[in-house]
Structures are given as C-alpha cells and as structure tokens.
Amino acid sequence: MTPTRLWFRQDLRLQDNPALHAAIARGGPIIPVYILDDAGEGRWVMGAAARWWVHHALTALDAALRSRGSRLIVARGESATVLRELIASTGAETVFWNRRYEPATIARDAQVKAEFSAAGLEVKSFTGALLNEPHTITNKQGRPFQVFTPYWRHCLTLPVAAPIKMDTGALVAPAKWPRSLAVPELELLPRIPWDAGFAAVWAPGETAARARLREFAAGAMAEYGDGRDQPARDGTSRLSPHLHFGEVSPRQVWAAVRAAAKGSGVFPPSKGAGVFLSEVGWREFAHHLLFHFPQTPERPLREEFARFPWAPDPRAKKLRAWERGQTGYPIVDAGMRQLWQTGWMHNRVRMIVASFLVKHLRLPWTQGSGWFWDTLVDADLASNTLGWQWSAGCGADAAPYFRIFAPVLQGNKFDPAGDYVRRWVPELSRLPAESIHAPWEAPPHVLAAAGVKLGGNYPKPIVDHATARNAALAAFRELRAGKSVA
Fold this sequence. Notes:
The chain is mainly alpha-helical. Helix content is about 45%, strand content about 5%. A five-stranded parallel β-sheet has the order 3-2-1-4-5, sandwiched between helices. Helix 1 (about 20-25) links the parallel strand 1 and strand 2.
C-alpha cells in the first residue's frame, strides 16, 4: 500500500492516538511528520517557553518512534507546502491528523483538507485532544454555553470513551525515508538561560506524562480539593503542559481516575478526584468558548469591557515590575518568579497575580495574557484566554470585577507559613511568618534581623492596596455608568 502521512501537531504521543490508530489499521508504511509552521498559528505563534518544551518533546517522540522501527520527519514551513512536497516525494495518498481548535489552525486545516481532497487524496482528521468536541455541545436553546456549571453538568451526562487500545510494537517503515531536519535545526531552544531551571522541574514526553499521571492518581489526587490551593505543596497534577502538547490524552486522565475507583466502586473515588475532573472540565469549557467566540484572545467576551478605563503606565514601568516579580507584594512576586524560573505557576497564584495586574495596577488583561503566553510551558490559547478574562471580569462565567483579591490576605490564607514565598523570594526567607506577606508592616528590628531593606534588596509596594482597590472600583462604576473613555 502507499504510505500514510501522519501529521503530528499537539498530539505528541503514541498511545490513545486516534490518527496513529487509523494509520495502523489502514496498513502499509507510516511516515510521521512534525511541521513547525509559525505563520499557520496566526497571531499566536508559540511562545519561548513552549518552544523549549516542544524541542524536548519532539526528541522524545522521535526516540519512541525509532524504538519501533520508525522515525519522526521534522520540517519547517507552511504546512500545505511541506505536506505537498512530502506527498510528491513519497507517493503517499493518505494524510491523517488529530484536530486542533484554535481559530487560525481551524482555518488552516480546512484549507489543507479541501486542497488535498480535491486532488484525490484520502484526508481524515480525528478527535484526540478533548473529551467532547466544541461543536457537539449546546444548551437547550441550541446555543453555546457561557456558564461552566450547566456546561459541565451536561457533559457529565455524556459517555467518556475508554482510551484506544493500541499495539505500537512495530510500525511499518517506508522503503525510503524523506529528508528531515534534525530537531535542533528548528532552533526552538531559547537564547536566554532557561534550560537549567526548566530541566530541573520538567521532563517532556509521553513516558514522563504517563508516569506523572500515575503518581498523581495514586497520591495527591485524593486531597486535591484542598491541596490545589496551597502553593507550597505538591498538590496539583502538573499535567497541564503534557495535556496541552498531547503527551497524555484527557481520556487517559479519565481512565486513570476510573482505575483509582475500582476498589471502592465509587466514581469519582474521592472528593479530590471529583474536583480534579472538574478542572479537566474547565479545560474543555475553555476550548468550547474559544471555538464559539474566536475573537476572545484579543477582545473581551463582554463587549462593554472594551471601553474599560485602564490606567496609564508610562514606559510600562508597572508592567515590568509585575513581570519581574518586583511589585513589593511577596505572594505576587513569588508567583512571577516561579513562572520565570520554571515556566509554570501554581493555579491559585495565577489568580492572585492576574487580579493584581488588572485591578491593583489596572493594566489591560491582554498584557498579562501576552506575558503568560511567552513564559508558560503550558501556554494554551483557550485556557489562557479563559483564565485572563475570568480574572478581568470580562469573560464567560467570570469573577465580578469588583471582587478584588487582597494579596496579603491571600498569602496569609494559602501560604500561612510563608514557605512558598521563602522559596521564590529568598531575600525575605528569614522573615517570620507573621511578617512575610506584608514586610512593610514589620517593625524595623524584625526587618534588620532578617536582612531585609525595603527599597533596597526588596522593593516597597508599588501601589497601596486600599488606594488601588478604591481606584479599581471607581473605574468599574465608570464603566457601568456607560461613560466614554477618552
């Protein structure tokens, strides 16, 4: 048989891979390919931290394929052009891939499918990234959901398919392999010194993803309901980058939770497991919203927020302080430094730092989403958009804008001993717990004993909480009053 061209994208795994399963079932040689197509991503070209991940994930995928007698063909360029050239050079008459749901990739994939189908090729795409495709879920009025609870309640009535059982012991290779770039030739690794910090925390690839899922399901999942809010603990799954790049599928996650329930027969097997599955649901909901409201990465879903009176920020001074973890609010600075050093931030702290940007500094949420896009290894357009619009109060099922997180109270509540701050803001590490979240309130002798010099080795707060809160509420009142913004 002629070869099947298997187009890998954000499905960098062999198990429970519908496109690969279809290629094996078809028979004949399989030519796996990954194409770095920055232009095809539209305005949302993969950020620097995510590119670091992809470099290592592709290396792992290629090794897994080679162990099965295959290999990964790596290319760079416009997707249709690369596929066209590969088809011509290999005689492939079939192209399979798993679907993505970002606006630019939907348009690109539709164009590729139309062109190749018109040329007489067999072109098929499959569902491999979500439990439910966005276009299949509507409310009773036939419209997209905009509130999570009814959306997820509806989804829970639908069956979740088991992961596909696959035999990938050996893959049929073509008679001759086409030319390929080496992964380093894609130049995905950043020029800033991220490798050491990222590699100490992350192991990209399917093997590491499945190991992390097993470890979480057997351990922290049971206490996830409480553990997910304590940033000093390893209480979260840390599966988000593995899910985003498809090194593990949501069906595999669901199956792992089901497996944990076998002993008791109760599903979910614990309160923590139920909360964890609802977080999988939020990921699904994010893609649902992005599919139905493709303008939201740049524009608020609630259109009145397009005229929100954001504060001026000459020379982006406040934005830079926030990005660098130099705001003078320890829980905010700890989160931003964790992000910079590891490419990831604890979810509770993501909400705190996002609220601080849009409400304390009153800077546009798009500035925060852009920074996260470039610095998160799990940067996902759907989830990033949902999270930032939630924090800014301008999206679906969003937190009201007038709900303003107080950084000191959040720190005291979720990091009471200050261990998270001590890890990421070491200049405050010798402060006692009662002072660590508000060092400006500590007596001079306490600061001196801890070696803290406010305005010296640690900044004073760049805004006053009470003043910033009042200004944010006044801006919200101005928005509700319908006043135009100059």
